[in-house]
Amino acid sequence: MKRRSLPSRDELLSFIRERSGKVGAREIARAFGAKNADRAAINRMLRELADNGEIERRRKRLHHTGALPPVVLADITGRDRDGELLARPTEWDEDAHGAPPIIRLVIPRRARPGEIGGVGDRALLRVERRDDETTGRIIKLIDRAKQRILGIFRSLPNGAARLVPIDKKQLGRELTIAADRTGGAVDGDLVAVEVATHVRHGLAAATVVERLGSLKTERAVSLIAIHAHGIPHAFTRAVIAEADAARPATTEGREDWRAIPLVTIDPPDAKDHDDAVHAAPDSDPRNAGGHIVSVAIADVAHYVRPGSALDRAAAERGNSVYFPDRVVPMLPERISNDLCSLRPHEDRAALAVRMVIDADGRKRSHTFHRVLIHSAARLTYEQAQLAVSGRPDEITEPITATILEPLYAAYRAVRRARDERGPLDLDLPERKILLKSDGTVDRVVMPQRLEAHRLIEEFMILANVAAAETCERVRVPLIYRVHDEPSPEKLNALREFLGTLDISLPKGGALRPDAFNRILERVKDRDVERLVNEVVLRSQAQAEYSPDNFGHFGLNLRRYAHFTSPIRRYADLIVHRALIRAVKLGSDGLPEGADVASLAEIAANISATERRAMKAERETADRLIAHFLADRVGATFDGHISGVTRAGLFVELDETGADGLIPARNIGDEYFRYNEASHAFVGRSATYRLGDLVTVELVEAAPVAGALRFRMIRQPHAGQTPRPGHEPRQQGKIVRTERHGHRRRRGKRS
Questions:
Q1: Class of domain 71-143
Q2: 128-166: b or e for each residue (b if 16 or more CB lie within 10 Å)?
Q3: Domains of the chain by residue range
Q4: pTM
Q5: How would residue 730 be classed by pLDDT, with cut points 50, 70 and 90?
Q6: CA distance 141 to 87
Q7: Looking at per-residue confidence, does 46 or 736 come out higher?
């Protein structure tokens, strides 16, 4: 029988810990029989628990601090005394939650050997908390243990060889390979070895077990990342056969939109074109000044059916991976670059959304259609921008007034609504590596941010919102693109840091991106602009995929799904299938058996493949830049401090965007105190902070690992030591920066 009283602190914590599903003040009041008048008291208790770090709000729900989601990616790290496998979550914020929880794996009695997993494997787990123990059942093994080491084979005159590891963490730890254990490798090959002998002194011995390719080819650098991260890059015969057998779609079961002059607007080097746009004034007098915006997206679902070989390959890859020298596509070229590429003047199948926009840029209504289109033109961003600026070329001149100007008119309206919505508006430039014909770096550029880029972005966001709304309205499950609010721990750290700059971040109340935008506006065109943008970015949560909708904080949207790139993202393909089922556009939609639980597994997997791709792309860029700078050791460069850790300062060069480390011993000849909260090394005569402009000397470049090491030359615009009364309470670690001298020691904590 429910009692009429407020829960105690321990009862409240126990309820939040054990409850599955949504947990909030309403659910707590209902469970404990509290009256409506007691809701304020319950909210006050919850705030106190949150302030004490005992609970946190994640995905719009209350959780016991450090609680795991129902499905988690985890690494199998060892065994307990009884021999049972133990795992830890792959991603865990130790600063916020302390040590990661230990998950004991429950292995079904009838499990086959290949389904069990072993130490070092990475797996997708369904976790459950019972009797103060967290258990997990393996849904899918993602990566097998890497018992091998990858490196570059370097021949020696006596027939033996050395292995130069590609991992930054193993930099300088070469392995020796006997003449009879080279596996036929030649100098410059990327090879996989097994460590044969671990020795206390001298080099460990290894045996070549696989030759992966020559680093003398144009595609050598990305090859390292592909193998290092286990990115699938070769399609099976079954997948290729299925792709080759596909035939172009016709008007059967489709609306004929070929008379609508849709256009694609992409980068000049784009290989596939999966979105086309069109806009026109709305002729309805009830929507004076409004617009009709149409977005057509390649109908990948028509060619990639659920459960097919193509579908299994796409699900495994999760997304395409983009390197400067190549693309590892999610789908074979027959699909991605041919049948699903919206080429100009060719009939192509598409899934389209028609949106009615009012004069203020707000979406009034929308409808989805399965169509056949005939793109009127393939344009680049620069082409489109030049045309509406009065400098058309032979392609854009005939379509500027009829196609491009209506697009820009609709965009200007949508932009007004976007500004009113107030999404997070960080200003962090992106760089692009341009290669020569031999695959080496030509130069690094910072592409100009044009209005044409923003036009496409805003129309795609509108289409993504429409997709989520349509599926939600008819209760068809889908995968959302979600972005949580910053955690209380990160907000507190940001608040403390901003205090050193006399900038306040309000406490309490509903957190919105506007709060961050006001801060960014205050520092615009100031010396600390880059610094504050960097720190605000680091305070944000990471976007991911989920079948549960908890909104997109950065875009300030309540519901959002990825719909616009099914050629390169599996999440978008799932959303296409959900829409086909929701709007009854065919028999190839999301299978009826697909539910939130099955989509949770897919979402966790593609979130992991997305992070894998980002890491591989970043490492490849690092290696290319390190190759580019290898012959400039001793040269000086201007840059800014992009990271501050106990090990030293990370510096990003202005010229190339390359990142490298200044070890603590190379900063200067004095003691520095590492101040984590203010992202700084604080000394008696100088302070080095995140974002500071510096001049450095390149001391070492390791192209294979993509590592650069610098020495501090000077700091033209040094950061200021935090003002008295604003020093963070945790002072961190004192570091002696001379190469020789006193031992390092830890500073006291007050």
A1: mainly beta
A2: ebeeeebbbbbbebbbeeeebbbbbbbbeeeeebbbbbb
A3: 9-64, 71-143, 149-216, 237-479+555-615, 485-540, 633-746
A4: 0.79
A5: very low
A6: 13
A7: 46
